[in-house]
Amino acid sequence: MRQHQRALREGANLRRLELAVTRKLDGLLHGDHQTLLYGPGSERGDSRAYQPGDDARRIDWALTARMNEVHVRETYADREIETWLVVDLSASLNFGTALCEKRDLALAIAAAFGLLGARPGNRTGALIFDGNGTELIPPRSGRNAIMNVLRRIDIRPDSAGKPASLSDALTLVARSARRRCRIVVVSDFIDAGPWVQELRRLAVRHDVIVANISDPREWELPDSGLVTFADPETGRRVEVPTSNRAIRERFNTAAAARRGEIRSSIQSSGARMVELSTDRDWMSDVVTFAKRSRMAA
Fold first, then answer.
1. 269-282 pLDDT, tens digit each
2. pTM of the predicted model as reported, rounded to 2 decimal places
3. Is residue 121 part of a domain?
4. Is residue 72 assigned to a domain?
5. How far apart (Å, rounded) are the C-alpha atoms in residues 230 and 209?
């Protein structure tokens, strides 16, 4: 009986999230391309002579050498898009001091990219990972396939006390995505592994979008007296006298440096980034990212 009631609650939560994405968010992202998955396309088309203003990255060097005149290769917009959602559900995401937990934001952003890209012919797969292991869901088309991915994210059990590897997840999705596609990486990037190199390799071939999730308390230490902090992935505990101003300042400086390092690493990898925080409206952040992507396209 309890399991049945829990399943009903989980189903209701997903339906509310679906309504929020398809009605509110899709209504804000109006225009000819009502989707976050926007761009000039990657399918090779006809070639033509170079004209002032053309993107130099589209120069067809082989044809230019043969014709002794600079030519560019046009591309057609992809009508069928394959999307992979790489969702980090490690124990560090079970944290939130504002409007929600980081895990809730991970589910919301997965729903946004999955549901708004659910057009005929498009396929969506997922790689969900945490300290308990990795779950690979092959790409499928249709709303039911996306709702299944969201349900798997929503019901995945906690992996407290077990570290997860973002770099291993990126390596696995690189092997699984056989054709050029869009890969959405959802994580808080609290990971000491070599994920930067793997993200760069992924962005060379694929259109990579990174959703960087955080909470304001991760970047600023409040004055709360003697506080015991616990690492959710290792279980290690440490007592910190937060009333000590010098300690707070050292923490805030180190946190700012780490935050800048994560942001710089993502941007330099060639991936596009949307930043989400538990103290902000995630829909507004997604709309801002979509508008910025259109301007850059």
1. 999 999 999 999 99
2. 0.78
3. yes
4. yes
5. 31
